[in-house]
Amino acid sequence: MLSLDEEVRLYTTNAEREKYSLLATLFGVVVALDYLERAYVRDAITAAEYSPACTRLLSQYMTMLKLVKDSIPSIEDFMARYRLDTPAALHRIKVGVPATVEHSSEAGPETGKWIAETTQNFITFMDALKLRLRAKDQLHPILQELVTGYARFKGSKDWEGRSRMVGWLITLNGMKASEELTEEQSRQLLFDVDYAYAEFFRSLGGNKDGL
């Protein structure tokens, strides 16, 4: 007969113990991210404090997810299984970048270096699509860097191209690493990136006070 005072073990092997340890770490990362998001929304922390902390937690989440992918079909399943009520964390995970990037920052005057870097990021990403790169693990890092640099321009929150890029970032973020965009999706993505690229340069040339 099982004693009520006896400790219940979740595992019987070292492999199972490691699995539950990883799941516990993932649980902690998601909870921490939710608290961070709520603190930022309440202005309890500054953007300068929030951005690096959020980036670090998202990176930790991606690392942990790779380690437990055989046990966790999706983050939604994980939250449901362990009764995690963390909608703010779920949204941030789906977007894949801090709110300061998603909604544009107010970082101050942009420099020629920013323009050069963003231009190069556009070209790199469009070249990747033209070379028929389709998998999430090929495209997501490049697009994430593009969107992050793009968001440093204060006027970018009003650019339609930027919202399209964030939408594609969310789409890629929801895919498995080996999943690929369809031919139709790839063509639409290239069209949207080209649109954003043209809009970016029109804004630089015609509205320098808004940068």
Automatic annotation (TrEMBL):
GO annotations of cellular component type: ESCRT I complex; late endosome membrane
What topology in the membrane does the UniProt record assign? Peripheral membrane protein
Domain VPS28 C-terminal, which positions?
110-205
Q: Name one GO biological process term.
A: protein transport to vacuole involved in ubiquitin-dependent protein catabolic process via the multivesicular body sorting pathway
Q: Which InterPro entries match?
A: ESCRT_assembly_dom, Vps28, VPS28_C, VPS28_C_sf, VPS28_N, VPS28_N_sf
Domain VPS28 N-terminal span(s) in chain numbering: 1-103
Subcellular location(s) of the protein? Late endosome membrane
Under Gene Ontology molecular function, one entry of this record is: protein-containing complex binding
Give the UniProt keywords, A-Z.
Endosome, Protein transport, Transport
- Where does this chain mainly localize? membrane
Note the superkingdom of the native organism.
Answer: Eukaryota
**PANTHER family in the cross-refs:** VACUOLAR PROTEIN SORTING 28, ISOFORM 2 VPS28 (PTHR12937), VACUOLAR PROTEIN SORTING-ASSOCIATED PROTEIN 28 HOMOLOG (PTHR12937:SF0)
Family named by the database record:
Belongs to the VPS28 family.
> What is this protein's function per UniProt?
Component of the ESCRT-I complex (endosomal sorting complex required for transport I), a regulator of vesicular trafficking process.
* Name of the featured protein: Vacuolar protein sorting-associated protein 28
Q: What is the lineage of its organism?
A: Eukaryota, Fungi, Dikarya, Basidiomycota, Agaricomycotina
